[in-house]
């Protein structure tokens, strides 16, 4: 089914109206004596007085930019099948993470494993799990809002995230390594030197577990887009108790006003970051310092979203 958010999701239409209202409420900040940050209410995008021209053209500029992005989303089912090269990249990354944890446990247990060392290892892994959700949120927010497909190193990832917003179903069709491999190579820059040069067991275990979860978040993300009937019962249970990001939680990211729910490991940090206006404040600071506006400030909420795969798509080619 191809539809606009308005026709398929009543709540999206409500969000559109809410966002419009907020755009209009910017007028009250026309007063040159109003300090944008002191007037900041956590939801409204306030732009400094000197940059008034930008404010008027912001919606148009961002709309044009978004239009050019994510359009090259591959629709050929063959591109969703895992290749040996993609499997190799996944094996290297997860191999390095496993070695980090093994080396960390080895350092702890070099003179026998004491109870406090086992507790420290477990606590480190728990800390890595807890903070990895925050890490995915900040990363996801940055690529959703800044840069373009021409950005060095991250251009492909940035364009792919825009494509994901236009065609959310594609993530559910990719085979495992095909979906995961995109973020497997860059973290090797951190995991490899840590493995070779660091001997502190807590550092080793933290980097191993944190990196593995950040990369696996693409799989947790894919699960959050699947129907209950398509999910293994263990995954469903993990989503329901909040160990993995839930379908409802991530669904909010794909609905108007398109400016929150960026965390995709457990989703634990989503209400904390969204309710505190953390990202809006960060966007204000970046805008004040550089003049670059985030894409979520655009008032365009009516872009076409293709919710489901076209009828018969991938038949005979995509086998999970
Ligand atoms: Zn996104
Ligand atoms: Zn998504």
Report what the structure shows.
- With 320 residues, the chain is mainly alpha-helical.
- The protein has one domain (2-306).
- Helix content is 58%, strand content 1%.
- The chain has 15 helices and 2 strands.
- It has helices at residues 5-8, 10-25, 36-39, 52-67, 84-108, 115-145, 155-166, 170-173, 176-180, 188-197, 201-224, 233-240, 247-253, 269-275, 278-290, and strands at 2-3, 305-306.
- A two-stranded antiparallel ribbon has the order 1-2.
- Helix 5 (84-108) packs parallel to helix 10, helix 5 runs antiparallel to helix 11 and helix 6 (115-145) crosses helix 11.
- It is globular.
- It starts with a strand and ends in a 14-residue tail after the last strand.
- Residues 1-56 have low confidence and may be disordered.
- One zinc ion (ZN) binds next to helix 6 and helix 7.
Count of the domains: 1
Strand percent estimate: under 5%
Write down the Rg: 22 Å
Q: Tell the overall outline.
A: globular
Low-confidence stretches: 1-56
Walk across the major sheet and give the strand order.
Answer: 1-2
Oligomer: single chain
> Total helix count?
15
Helix-and-strand structural type: mainly alpha
Q: Helix fraction?
A: 55-70%
Topology pattern, helix = H, strand = E: EHHHHHHHHHHHHHHHE
| Tally of strands | 2
List keywords for this structure.
mainly alpha, 320 residues, binds zinc ion, membrane, disordered N terminus
Topology:
Elements: E1 2-3, H1 5-8, H2 10-25, H3 36-39, H4 52-67, H5 84-108, H6 115-145, H7 155-166, H8 170-173, H9 176-180, H10 188-197, H11 201-224, H12 233-240, H13 247-253, H14 269-275, H15 278-290, E2 305-306
Antiparallel strand pairs: 1-2
């Amino acid at each position: 089914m191809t539809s606009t958010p308005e026709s398929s999701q009543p709540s999206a239409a409500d969000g559109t109206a809410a966002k419009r209202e907020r755009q209009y409420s910017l007028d009250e900040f026309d007063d040159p004596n109003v300090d944008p940050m002191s007037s900041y209410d956590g939801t409204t995008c306030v732009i400094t007085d000197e940059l008034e021209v930008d404010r008027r053209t912001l919606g148009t500029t961002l709309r044009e930019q978004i239009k050019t992005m994510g359009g090259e989303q591959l629709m050929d089912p063959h591109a969703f099948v895992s290749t040996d090269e993609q499997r190799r990249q996944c094996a290297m990354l997860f191999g390095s993470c496993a070695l980090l944890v093994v080396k960390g446990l080895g350092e702890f247990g070099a003179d026998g494993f004491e109870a406090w060392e086992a507790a420290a290892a477990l606590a480190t892994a728990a800390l890595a799990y807890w903070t990895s959700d925050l890490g995915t949120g900040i990363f996801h927010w940055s690529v959703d809002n800044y840069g373009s497909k021409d950005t060095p190193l991250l251009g492909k990832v940035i364009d792919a995230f825009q494509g994901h917003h236009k065609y959310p179903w594609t993530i559910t069709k990719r085979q495992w390594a095909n979906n995961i491999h995109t973020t497997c190579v860059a973290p090797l820059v951190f995991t490899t030197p840590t493995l070779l040069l660091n001997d502190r067991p807590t550092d080793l275990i933290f980097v191993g577990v944190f990196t593995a979860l950040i990369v696996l978040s693409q799989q947790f993300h894919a699960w959050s887009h699947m129907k209950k009937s398509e999910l293994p019962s263990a995954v469903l249970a993990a989503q329901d108790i909040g160990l993995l990001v839930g379908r409802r939680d991530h669904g909010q990211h794909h609905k108007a006003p398109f400016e929150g729910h960026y965390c995709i490991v457990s989703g634990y940090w989503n209400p904390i970051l969204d309710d505190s206006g953390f990202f809006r404040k960060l966007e204000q600071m970046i805008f004040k310092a550089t003049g670059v506006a985030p894409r979520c400030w655009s008032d365009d909420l009516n872009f076409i979203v293709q919710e489901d795969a076209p009828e018969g798509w991938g038949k005979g080619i995509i086998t999970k």
